[in-house]
Design goal:
Elements lengths: L8 H13 L7 H10 L1 H4 L4 E6 L9 E7 L4 H7 L10 H11 L4 E7 L3 E8 L8 H4 L7 H5 L1 H6 L6 E7 L4 E6 L8 H11 L6 H7 L4 E7 L7 E8 L11 H9 L8 E7 L5 E10 L11 H8 L1
Antiparallel strand pairs: 1-2, 1-10, 2-3, 3-4, 4-5, 5-6, 6-7, 7-8, 8-9, 9-10
Length: about 300
């Protein structure tokens, strides 16, 4: 049942180890255990999710993520526990700058079971989305957010930012944007990709986009270009989207024992090199009221009701 999974450190580690094994990834206790113990007081109330990806970049790793209350500063904890190192890069200032500027609902963290602490997610309160105009006022934001403001405005993406994701390992930033319905139509998807200089999606991805609930863009600090545009969908049957996802991923989807009746999240993107890939997320413990990767669900569910 949703919300009933044990969430002490040992139980969560065991579930991570078991789930990662479904795609032949061996979780490192030396990597995972310090992260879980650093935030163990918050695990009892957290939404906890596991994620796999189909692209070569994520080969050999398996991601886990969980929510944190707004009273916990995940970056400060990560630094104090040695999960991240201090840096002079602007990414080191981004979370504190957002905290000073914006009301925050909650946080999330993301880590690889072999690679360690990766990301922090900043969730804005429901109904109080941020605007790109405000966020681009921060000196620590990647310049590509401001340099592409005309693009965001033309497609109706500039006024409602639900979530910011900060990838400390990859040194990128994601902006999760509430989007009008036309942004999921094939013609507009193609138009946006061409305008950004990204490869055209396949027919499978066009079909996926038509069933998506939101999109996010990826930015780095070294370029004025938008690095990637990704789309997300909610489903209880991820395989309904695809003919095949690869043997390991299909095995995970069909075999993961947690959150069987809970929604799954699927994300799709095309890289600048033309690699098309998908991320699938299953919940070890789901809470329908959480903001974890569900920033758009309520609005889109109401539209389709």
């Amino acid at each position: 049942m949703p919300g009933t999974a044990d969430a002490d450190v040992a139980s969560v580690y065991s579930a991570i180890e078991e789930s990662a094994g479904l795609i032949d990834v061996t979780a490192s206790r030396d990597v995972v255990w310090p992260i879980l113990t650093a935030f163990e007081d918050e695990l009892a109330d957290a939404v906890i999710a596991f994620r796999v990806a189909t692209n070569a970049q994520h080969e050999g790793d398996f991601d886990a993520r969980f929510t944190l209350p707004k009273e916990v500063d995940p970056y400060a904890v990560a630094l104090s526990k040695g999960l991240l190192e201090e840096t002079d890069h602007p990414i080191g200032e981004l979370l504190s700058d957002i905290q000073r500027l914006c009301p925050i609902d909650s946080f999330g963290i993301d880590f690889g079971v072999t690679t360690g602490f990766k990301k922090i997610w900043v969730y804005f309160p429901e109904g109080e989305q941020e605007t790109l105009a405000r966020l681009t006022s921060l000196a620590s934001m990647p310049r590509s957010l401001a340099d592409n403001i005309d693009f965001f405005t033309r497609y109706g993406l500039a006024e409602k930012v639900d979530v910011i994701g900060i990838d400390y390992r990859g040194r990128t930033m994601n902006a999760y944007l509430a989007a009008p319905a036309r942004c999921f139509e094939a013609d507009t998807v193609l138009e946006m990709h061409r305008e950004l200089g990204l490869p055209s999606p396949s027919e499978q991805m066009f079909n996926f986009c038509e069933r998506s609930f939101g999109l996010y863009t990826t930015h780095n600090w070294d370029s004025s270009e938008i690095q990637r545009m990704s789309y997300g969908a909610k489903t209880e049957d991820p395989m309904a989207f695809f003919a095949r996802l690869g043997t390991k991923i299909e095995h995970f989807v069909k075999s993961v024992p947690y959150g069987v009746d809970d929604p799954k999240m699927v994300y799709a993107a095309v890289t600048s090199t033309g690699e098309e890939y998908y991320k699938l997320q299953s919940y070890y413990r789901w809470r329908s009221v959480s903001r974890l990767n569900a920033a758009y669900i309520a609005a889109r569910d109401k539209e389709s009701a």
